[in-house]
Design brief:
This protein is of the alpha+beta class. The protein is built from 3 helices and 5 strands. It has one domain. Keywords: Membrane, Transmembrane, Transmembrane helix.
Length: about 140
């Protein structure tokens, strides 16, 4: 392998490995919220899908829930995959110190995103090691 190829593999390895720390931080923060925030059942009040000028669509789910003091609260979520239907129940977590701060408790995005970033990390480490070994020979 030439030095140019080795540097390519090193650069590729770094590019592939970079998303992993960010995904790990998101995972840790999400699990911390799931552990410390209050879990309730919310009701979907509306589901709106808008088509943007570039042809992509964006779905926003509006929901409402009742906090521990009996106060009605509302929130929004942008699902990555299948949106729930109107009037359906969804799992919601909210910050007990600031009950207006909430999120849908779906972890589908983590179940897809994190394994992908682990695979990218493995490929990145392999590429980085291959490039470094080539340079040291």
């Amino acid at each position: 392998m030439s030095n140019g190829d080795a540097w390519f593999f090193i650069g590729l390895g770094l590019v592939l490995a970079v998303p992993f720390p960010f995904a790990l931080i998101m995972l840790v923060r999400t699990h911390a919220r799931r552990r410390t925030w209050t879990h309730v059942t919310g009701t979907v009040t509306s589901v709106r899908t808008k088509r943007r000028n570039d042809g992509e669509t964006r779905t926003t789910v509006h929901y409402r829930y009742t906090d521990a003091l009996g106060q009605q609260r509302s929130g929004t979520d942008t699902p990555w995959f299948r949106a729930p239907s109107r009037k359906s129940d969804i799992a919601v977590v909210y910050d007990p110190d600031n009950p207006d701060r909430s999120e849908a408790a779906s972890t589908t995005w983590l179940n897809v995103l994190f394994p992908i970033t682990v695979v990218l990390l493995a490929l990145g480490v392999w590429s980085l090691v291959a490039g470094l070994q080539s340079l040291t020979q």
